[in-house]
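Incident log, structure service

09:12 report received: a user says their structure output differs between two submissions of the same chain.
09:20 pulled the input from the user's history:
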Amino acid sequence: MTLRQLGKTRDILGESPVWCDRLKALWWVDILAPSVRRLILATGEVESWQMPEPVGSLALSENGGLVVALSTGLAAFDPGTAKLDWIARLHEDREDLRLNDGRTDRAGRFWVGSMRRADYEAEGRLYRMGRALEPVRDGIQVPNSLAWSPDGRRIYFADSPTRRIEVADYDAAAGTPGPWRAFAATEPPGFPDGSAVDREGFLWNAEYGGSRLTRYAPDGTVDRHVVLPVRYPTCCAFGGPDYATLFVTSGSQENREEPGQGVLLALEPGVQGLPEARVRL
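09:34 re-ran on a clean worker, output below:
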């Protein structure tokens, strides 16, 4: 399996890769730059848009733009004009909180988690975007690993400091999870960060600090590990022709002096992924 670096960017904390089939491009964020980035796969060209505050994640919207999860809330972003229109505001009176990992379920509902910026006290929440941002779960330290099974009937989530990935049955019509239960756990030094699900229903997870991706079978057993040349991989997403490429973001905030960190990687793992649903604004 060949690993390659794409583009020449070096992110402080790269996150939230999402493939856009319309543009044949990969979107992702650098949370702390803070920037939204886009790679045109055919040319390797990377374009960046500066954000007014840290940006934890993004999603595609049906109108061709993006939904971005900034520190204090969600906004619709038009890359053509660089215009931001707020959808919902949170945390305006809490500079110690910010939004973090976010993903869209199979029906086009955007889910996003919040966290404390520095000490990771369990004051974060998991939200579902409907007519407003609706809280679904409290007491979270660092929300990550949001993903759904191919049929949309299972939801995955990790509160990273616990080193546990959880799963719940998911009512796709209502957009509600059932009781959470243990799915898998990582060993030190790795923490479960962002995830993606392939067409076979296996979960791929980036292990922050663990220098690898892990592929889990639907029953939570380890199918394989993929060793990476970055110490802090943060998230992964399928895309490219036939969704056969797995893109991996990474961070360099904890090892800025070490070369080759914070880069965007790509590999062909031999399985295909699924398109991301677009948010209905």
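09:41 both user submissions now match this output. Likely a transient worker issue. Closing.
09:42 reviewer note: The CA atoms of residues 133 and 166 lie 22 Å apart. The mean pLDDT is 96.
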